[in-house]
Amino acid sequence: MVTQFSDTKLITPSNIGYLQSIIILCLLVYLIIVLKNKKSKEKELAFMKSEVANTTWKKTQLNTELEDLKIKNAKLEEEMSIHRLKEETLLKEFVPEEQNNVNTIEWQIDKPKVVRQPERFYTKYADLIDGFSVAELVEDENNETIFEIRLQSPNKATFKVNENPAAQKYALTNADYFLQKTCVYDVVPFGKITTEKEGQLSLSGGKWEIIEPAKISFK
User: Is 184 helix (H, G, I), strand (E, B) or coil?
Assistant: First the structure.
């Protein structure tokens, strides 16, 4: 009972006032903190509103610039179209005359002539022992052109004794010299010369080399 009486005696009017002051102070601190937080949030909200407004303004500016570019592009396309139309008009006025001039020039210029390579040559004898010199070949025969050469391809040819009687007579004046190096025969040369099998030639540099001699007979 003594202890309870002592505790009750501690609660006095002054103690109650002190507790009230502490509670009020806590409430004030709380209110201040709440107000500060509110102001901070308001500042953040205001900043966000400002950023949104700034972004909206930039977007509007970009849209305006884009519209300006579209207008400028349309004007350029129109100018280019007018320029192309002028060019086409000028071409229609001048091109026909130029084409006529070109056609006239084409008729005046001679077309390149196709040079026909001869397929037959003649020569007197095998001046290179085992072949005929290209430089000694001629296109027209005469009374001394003993051999006739016919092209088979650019580097292959055949040869035989010319059937010209005068050329054969000339060959028989020295048969060993004119015929022995180029032909194969079994009897002493006399009379008319007949080519039984044509000889084969191959072009090597400036020489038609004898690959196979001609086979001849006499009548």
Answer: strand
Tokens of 211: 């690959």
Chain centre to alpha carbon of residue 62: 44
What pLDDT, on the 0 to 100 scale, is given for residue 171?
A: 95
Element (H, E) at 21: helix 13-108
Run of H or E residues at 19: helix 13-108
Helix (H) or strand (E) holding 203: strand 199-204
**Rounded distance between C-alpha atoms, residue 173 and residue 3, angstroms:** 177
Question: What backbone phi and psi angles, to 5 degrees, belong to 184?
Answer: -115, 125
Angle formed at CA 180 by CA 175 and CA 181, multiple of 5 degrees: 130
Cβ proximity of 206 and 135 under 8 Å = yes
Q: For 99-143, what is each residue's pLDDT tens digit?
A: 545 454 444 455 556 556 678 999 999 999 899 999 999 999 999
Residue 126's closest CA among 42, 187, 183, 173? 183
Residue boundaries of the structural domains of the chain: 1-115, 120-218
Whole-model pTM?
A: 0.48
Cβ neighbours of residue 176 closer than 8 Å, sequence gap 6 or more: none
Q: Are 183 and 172 in contact (CB under 8 A)?
A: no
For residue 75, is it left (φ>0), alpha (ψ between -120 and 50) or beta?
A: alpha
